[in-house]
Amino acid sequence: MTEAFVALGANVGDRLAALRGAVSALGALKHTEVTAMSAVYETEALVLPGADPQPDHLNAVVGLWTGLGPFALLRALHVIERDAGRDPDAPKWAPRPLDLDILLFGVQCVESSTLVVPHPSLAERRFVLAPLAEVAGLAEVPGLGQTVDDLLAACPDSGRVERTEFVLRA
After folding, report:
1. What is the pTM of this model?
2. What are the residue ranges in the chain where pLDDT is below 70?
3. DSSP per position, 54-90
4. Domain 2-163 falls in which CATH fold?
């Protein structure tokens, strides 16, 4: 079993329902248990320079214990995203009903054409670091030699990240 952390985000449709549905789907995966859930944050959407603005995201992070390997977990995340209505062929920066990313997978570093763990933009995104710090602030990020709390304190991202009253499970 490996402890993994997955980022959840949504910026179209019923965003909170999408995040809650993802938590339920993650908990239903074979050999996987959801062990931690952050608060839900509302954040500005990242867009390419010159692109039209997009609706705000709801973001959260969940911790898992899983018997799946990182690539099997990635495939499962893609199925959950598609079940939530995400078009796998949509442009990378398009609005999305659900986005799931593996942030950390134990102490493993993975680098392939389909998966990079730790997430390559982890240290630059406050909207991911803030909820991750809630559930794994003292975790050392493999390959960076710093804890999640250290990365959050040094994060250059000044985008709006607001904790909401929403909870992932009622």
Report:
1. 0.94
2. 170
3. -PPEEEEEEEEEESS-HHHHHHHHHHHHHHTT--TTS
4. Alpha-Beta Plaits (3.30.70)
